[in-house]
Design a protein that fits this description.
Strand content: under 5%
Order of helices and strands: HHHH
Largest sheet: none
Radius of gyration: 10 Å
Number of strands: 0
Oligomer: single chain
Structural class: mainly alpha
Number of helices: 4
Length: about 55
């Protein structure tokens, strides 16, 4: 998998439930979420992606 965007890593670090769920996803699903995170235009959008994992 590619390196995670820093903003995505920070948002995951602040949300333990989302972090555990992200870690448990299949590789292709994780990659799709990382791609979505790379396209986030704001911090709020990045945080919404992380919240969607909960």
């Amino acid at each position: 998998m590619e390196e995670l965007p820093i903003g995505f890593m920070m948002a995951l670090a602040e949300n333990g439930v989302a972090l555990r769920r992200f870690a448990g996803l299949a590789d292709d699903t994780r990659q799709a979420i990382v791609t979505q995170a790379r396209q986030a235009a704001s911090r709020e959008e990045m945080e919404a992606i992380v919240r969607s994992l909960v």
